[in-house]
Amino acid sequence: MNRKSVLIVDDEADIRELLVLTLTRMGVDADTAGTVQEAQEALKHRPYDLCLTDMRLPDGDGLAVLNHISEHYGNTPVAVITAYGSTDNAVAALKAGAFDYLAKPIKVEQLRPLVMSALKLPKPVQARRAAIGETAQPGAPRLLGESPAIVRAREMISKLSRSQAPVYITGESGSGKEVAARLMHMGSSRADGAFVAVNCGAIPENLMESEFFGYRRGAFTGADNDRIGFLQAAQKGTLFLDEVGDLPLAMQVKLLRVIQEKKVRRLGDTEEAAIDVRIISATHRNLGEQVDAGEFRQDLFYRLNVIELKMPALREIPEDIPLMVGQVLERFARLSGNNPATISEEAMLALRRYDFPGNVRELENILERALALCSDNVIRETDLYLTQATPREKSAALDGALGTRGLPLHDFLDQVEREAILKALEATRFNKTAAAKLLGITFRSLRYRLDRLGID
Ligand SMILES: Nc1ncnc2c1ncn2[C@@H]1O[C@H](COP(=O)(O)OP(=O)(O)OP(=O)(O)O)[C@@H](O)[C@H]1O
Questions:
Q1: Where does the Response regulatory domain start and stop, copy by copy (predicted)?
Q2: What's the 140 CA to ligand 1 centre distance in angstroms?
Q3: What residue owns the CA closest to ligand 1's atom 29?
Q4: Ligand 1 centroid from CA 392, angstroms
Q5: Domain extent for 294
Q6: 34 Cα: distance to centroid of ligand 1 (angstroms)
Q7: In the Cβ-directed half-sphere of 327, how many Cα atoms lie within 13 Å?
Q8: Which ipTM did the prediction report?
Q9: Domain check: are 231 and 332 in the same one?
Q10: What's the domain count of the chain?
């Protein structure tokens, strides 16, 4: 196998020496440059698998090296070395497309995994294939659609696969945030590690710490065995924090510390363990507003939201609906061993006009139900049972809503709440987590309301 080569750009001789020594011990060729200019010269002479550059250089900065490389040698990942405590620089570099950053003083135990990940990066073509699901096993996630918004999302995913930057995915419930996160993981140098998906809203507050950090036997009553938490389970892989806005403030502080120090300590343990985890977070709420409202820490938001990826709502890309319908029906047919169902023109039109509050997840559910109800393997409009009111029905409902259906206000409100909850549960096939999202409330709040209204 060809030896890998790394270009080190730093004007301090002792740092260059430390880096060369470590890399040589790892069996990697290391060349050095002391300025932006020298780096540009070196790049002309041989291809590199990674460039490690200091942020501050005598004739420019690390971003200049980064920009030069992405312009002329787009496949070479660049990691920047930032001054102690300079988060701004690190974030700026990641936003500009750096693969990762190392904070000074450089610690060998952080340098080695960084270099190893960079050298393991799949070729860009492979990352792109992973992003469109081409290399995936049957049943692996795929992002369907050919609309400009989906094509852009796919391109971002393939680009972000080649970086360690934290990505923050926004989009409505069921719009493919988790699919995007999985694809980013699958196309990355972390693909051999685990993808750990955590729904932050579904973990009871008193279990948060033990779930995230793990515990040693005897740490608390009931801790019968040692257990690792989500962070360690995602070691060398990706941790997907879904509904990150639901993390309680106390937990946000602890998570920020873990992210900064790249270390975790289990409950009841005296020692810390180094972690190497990429964090991708998502929410269907507006985290910026939560920051303004004091519900989410600005500093954590800043660390998570280095790069934002927006997943479009299905109603914004109606042109993709026919293609998605076709592919979903084909998938169902493959699973059941039947011929793919067809869909009538009226039914397709109705779908294109529908609002899809639950997005692609809802589309899948509607089609699955329609398949069970239709005859002759043809889905007609009446098989779809679209719950959404037409504009006329909507205004009639509004007229009705002006009164309280002859009930005391309190009972009337309970009734409206019950109806909304039942509808959301139906739309999500009784998946409480998804129903809570659809309703724009937390899982905890839904559980409380179900109890209060006596819905089983
Ligand atoms: N563009 C898409 N192409 C194919 N399938 C999609 C697409 N978007 C979403 N899906 C499907 O919709 C379902 C929900 O997707 P996913 O879990 O990624 O959504 P989400 O945005 O994470 O939802 P939530 O906010 O509720 O967690 C999955 O079955 C997924 O396969």
A1: 5-119
A2: 12
A3: 361
A4: 31
A5: 125-310
A6: 47
A7: 15
A8: 0.97
A9: no
A10: 4
